[in-house]
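Repro:
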Amino acid sequence: MLLIGIITDQKSENDIKKLLDNNNFLVENNVIFIKEKNIDNIKNVHFDTVVINKEFEKMDELNKLLVNAKNIIINIDTNIDNKDLNIVNSNLITYGFNSKSSITISSVTDDDVLIYLQRNIYNNYGEIEVQEIKIENNPNYSIYDLIIVLTMFLMYVPKHETININGIK
């Protein structure tokens, strides 16, 4: 069974749930939202992917989760230093406005967000090549939440051309 852990704030959690529900992509039990207070309860869970979208205080506990994760997706615009994370055998994917991110936000207008996949991403179905993806900008969701959901689609939906996240073009 596919299991994705997401570390984010409450508003982002609610928005990601809405985006996932609107697309019938993952059933609710495939995604677990990890908080500082519940990390001790899930320290032995093996995640396929861990998404880090905010700073996390309990680095030792976080590193115990990361050591077994197949993929680690990090918002590089946060103050998390990759050197503090135990990323040894995992596929690291970074995202954000930083030009060195794996997935960068190239431009934002009132209507669209242009996202650039700068490096190939490997998933269970093969390789996703470098490309630009245009997403409809929606003021109800943060750009980071859209990227998290987009990345999960790219990683886990075999025919990602058929995805509809908030108006992908």
